[in-house]
Every structure is written in structure tokens, then in C-alpha cells.
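Lab notebook, design round three. We kept the backbone fixed and only want residue identities now. Task for the bench partner: fill in a sequence for the structure below.
Input C-alpha cells:
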């Protein structure tokens, strides 16, 4: 992966996310280490060409670098941090959105090679896994393809499927297979997370979410915590506060409007909890 950094730079000139012409593929770049930042990772794959980054879920830390890729099977709030980067050697990664329809198509073709794996506790919804030669090769081919735009309509979908196939065969592919095929607790918790992320302002109860998952409250509670490292209600609170932070920093509304938009009826409670998480009061996040 380290040999791909120079090519990756050409398609990631800006600090942050650089979309490409290939569907669902972007180049992420950071020119310096960062403090921990609250973020929400969607269902995705990160292949690092240079540098090192960390995502924290609860007390678990997942470090990804040229020797480890990161796969996120369900949407999750994380605390992310760039550990290694500089203007001369920026952090560079290929980020690929994961499409469950493509995952299902791969599983249908693969047969027993990719049988859904849903036995036992689901484990965390993201993981750092050892990089493999096929994945390194595919990262290089995707970068080469960006230089051959006439070939993108034909080859990009094939490369995406090949890349996902190797991830699905990998050490955490079982979780993603189960989510895609509607198997076990992985799928049930994934469905609940999608519902929560669609409208985090809704006043969910554990009973309601357990019913949506088709589980008893006690089983749901443990399965949810296994995937997210948080209880359902704490997870929802964290997601609300992260969405509020996003809206405030973009200047989408004033503090009161944002608090109401994410589901808070008490402005004082919102301000208190926001300050506890982000270390600053909500009004300080508004654009000046």
C-alpha cells in the first residue's frame, strides 16, 4: 500500500474527503495528526495508502494503516483520530461505500464459499483486519482506473465486486454477510441502527427497539451493546449530540432550533450534555 501513496496524492489534493468519478469511492487526506473527533461511520471500507488512523468505539481502539484495513458493517458513531500524518507524508486512504445489494449479489454467486455467518454474539460493528495481497492489488487497480476514464463504466463495477468479495472472505466478513442476508443478531441490530439513524430525534424506547429487532428486551440490550459498545439510550443520545454538533458548525440553525431538531425539549439539558461531550458550549460552535 505504501507504494500507492504517490498515485493517491494526485486524486486527493484537498484536506478531507475527495470524491472520485468511481461510484462510492473517495480519497481521504489529512496533512497533520488530529485530536479525537466525533464522527459517524457509515457502512464502508477504508484502505490506507499512507499514515495511520484510529477509530474508537467504547473502550475498543481500531487502528488502520497500510497493513490493516477498516471495515464498518453497520452505521456507528466513533471517536476518530489521525495518529500519523504530515504535509510531506499526509494520511491517505481509499474510502469505499458498501452496498448491501452488491454484497447479496456476491453471496448468491459464491454459494457455500460465502455462507452467512450469524452464530454467537455479533461483536463490534467495525473491525481492523490484516491487509492482504489481493486487496493491495485492487487498491492499485482502482487508482490506475482513475487515469483511464473510458474504462470506468465497465471495469469499476467489476473491481468493486472483487474488492467486496475478498472483504467478505476476510476475518470480519461474516458480520457483513449476516447483515446483508438477514441472518441472526447482526442483521437485527443493523436494522435497528438504520431506523435510529433515519430519525434520531424520535423518542425511542428500549421496548420499541427490541420489538423491531424481534428480541426480548434483555437479549436486545446485550446484542446492541455488543455491536455498539453502548446501551441503546446512550447511543441515541450520543447520535443526537453529534448531529447537533454538525448542524451548529454548519450554521443550519440557532442553538434552540438545533436542540429541538435533534429531539431535546429542554434547552438547559441539551446545553449541559453537549458541553459534557464536546468540552464547549453549543453557541461557541456557531460560525462567526
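Proposed sequence:
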Amino acid at each position: 500500500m505504501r507504494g500507492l501513496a504517490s498515485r493517491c496524492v494526485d486524486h486527493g489534493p484537498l484536506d478531507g474527503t475527495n470524491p472520485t468519478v468511481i461510484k462510492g469511492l473517495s480519497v481521504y487526506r489529512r496533512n497533520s495528526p488530529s485530536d479525537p473527533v466525533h464522527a459517524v461511520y457509515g457502512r464502508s471500507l477504508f484502505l490506507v495508502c499512507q499514515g495511520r488512523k484510529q477509530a474508537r468505539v467504547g473502550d475498543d481502539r481500531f487502528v488502520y494503516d497500510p497493513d490493516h484495513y477498516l471495515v464498518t458493517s453497520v452505521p456507528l458513531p466513533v471517536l476518530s483520530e489521525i495518529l500519523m500524518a504530515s504535509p510531506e507524508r499526509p494520511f491517505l486512504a481509499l474510502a469505499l461505500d458498501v452496498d448491501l445489494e452488491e454484497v447479496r449479489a456476491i453471496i448468491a454467486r459464491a454459494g457455500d464459499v460465502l455462507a452467512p455467518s450469524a452464530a454467537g454474539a455479533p461483536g463490534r460493528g467495525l473491525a481492523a483486519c490484516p491487509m492482504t495481497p489481493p486487496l493491495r492489488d485492487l487498491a492499485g487497480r482502482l487508482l490506475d482506473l482513475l487515469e483511464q476514464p473510458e474504462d470506468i463504466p465497465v471495469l469499476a463495477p467489476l473491481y468493486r465486486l472483487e474488492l467486496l468479495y475478498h472483504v467478505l472472505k476476510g476475518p470480519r466478513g461474516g458480520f457483513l454477510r449476516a447483515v446483508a442476508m438477514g441472518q441472526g443478531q447482526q442483521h437485527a441490530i443493523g436494522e435497528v441502527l438504520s431506523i435510529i439513524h433515519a430519525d434520531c430525534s424520535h423518542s425511542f424506547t428500549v421496548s420499541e427497539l427490541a420489538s423491531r429487532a424481534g428480541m426480548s428486551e434483555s437479549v436486545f440490550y446485550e446484542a446492541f451493546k455488543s455491536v455498539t459498545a453502548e446501551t441503546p439510550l446512550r447511543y441515541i443520545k450520543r447520535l443526537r449530540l453529534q448531529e447537533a454538533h454538525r448542524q451548529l458548525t454548519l450554521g443550519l440553525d440557532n442553538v434552540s432550533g438545533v436542540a429541538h431538531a435533534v429531539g431535546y425539549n429542554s434547552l438547559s439539558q441539551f446545553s449541559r450534555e453537549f458541553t459534557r461531550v464536546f468540552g464547549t458550549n453549543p453557541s461557541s460552535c456557531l460560525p462567526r
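Keep this in mind before ordering anything: The chain has a mean pLDDT of 91.
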